[in-house]
Structures are given as C-alpha cells and as structure tokens.
Amino acid sequence: MKRIITFGTYDVFHVGHVNLLQRAAALGDQLIVGVSTDALNYSKKQRYPVYNQNDRMKIINSLRYVNLCFEEESLEKKRDYILQYNADTLVMGDDWKGKFDEFKDICEVVYLERTPSVSTTQIIEVISSS
Ligand code: C2G
Fold first, then answer.
1. What is this model's ipTM?
2. Ligand 1: which of 10, 20, 91, 120 to mutate, judged by most atoms within 8 Å of the beta carbon?
3. Which end of the chain is more exposed for a tag (fewer CB within 10 A), N or C?
4. Separation of CA 67 and ligand 1 centre (Å)
5. What is the DSSP letter of 112?
6. What is the pTM of this model?
7. Closest C-alpha to ligand 1, atom 21
8. Residue 116 contacts by C-beta under 8 Å, 6 or more apart in sequence?
9. With a cut of 70, which residues of the chain have pLDDT below it?
10. Which atom of ligand 1 lies at the shortest distance from residue 92's CA?
11. Closest residue CA from atom 24 of ligand 1
C-alpha cells in the first residue's frame, strides 16, 4: 500500500488543483491531502481565503481520488504529518521545487509540473474586472 501526501490551500478550486491531485493519486494507492487552515493562510498571505477551511475541506473530501483530508495548521508540522499519516511519498507542484527536500530522509519527495496559466490570483482578477 503506497500512501501519497500533498498539501495546499485549494482556495477557489480550479483545474490546476484537479490536475495536480489526479497525478498525485496516480503515483500510489491512497491520497492524503493537508488543507491549509484559514489561520495558516492569514499568517502566510495577510488575507483570509475566499472560501473558508470547512468549505475547502468539503470540496477536497468530495473528490473520488482523495482518500482522506485533514487540516494543515502549520508549515512547520510537515514532518509530523508525513510520519503521522505514514506517507511514502510527498508530492507538490514545482513552484515548491527543492523546498521540501529536507524530508527525503523519511519519504520520497516528488515535484510535479504546475498547470500553466491558471491561478487563483488570475481568477480573482478576471472576476473583479468584469
Ligand atoms: N498547482 C498546480 N497548478 C496550478 C496551481 C496550483 O499544479 N496552476 C498546485 C500547487 O503547485 C500545489 C497545489 O496545486 O501543489 C495547491 O496549490 P495552492 O492551493 O496554491 O497551495 P499553496 O497555497 O501553495 O499551499 O504547505 C504548503 C501549502 O499548504 C501549499
């Protein structure tokens, strides 16, 4: 049983998130997803997400290729989460390339190519200018 773990905010869920999660799931038997809490997001970006954490968790939980999702409360806890969920592989988009190499002592670390030309920032810009 190969367990994959990945992390994200998934705020204003879009096809780039779908592509990443589907490809992550295809690398193993189970996909576990850490969803950033609203407080973690605020501490990173000084703004709250458009969708609150309960709604973002609900969306991620509803995906057929996601087996489990949990609240990611702190960026510093990644090692604990990987161990707690017994993950064999950590998968992230390549905007994070190299950032999680420190976990190679406890799991495989894979960076997948991001989907070009789609981002939450761009979606927000399109909506607010229409
Ligand atoms: N992603 C992608 N293509 C896009 C946009 C996002 O492949 N066009 C990927 C990101 O690389 C990431 C995942 O989708 O692996 C989730 O993206 P975000 O919600 O933007 O996640 P982020 O805010 O980077 O939070 O602990 C790390 C954080 O929780 C990651």
1. 0.96
2. 20
3. C
4. 18
5. E
6. 0.96
7. 8
8. none
9. none
10. 15
11. 8
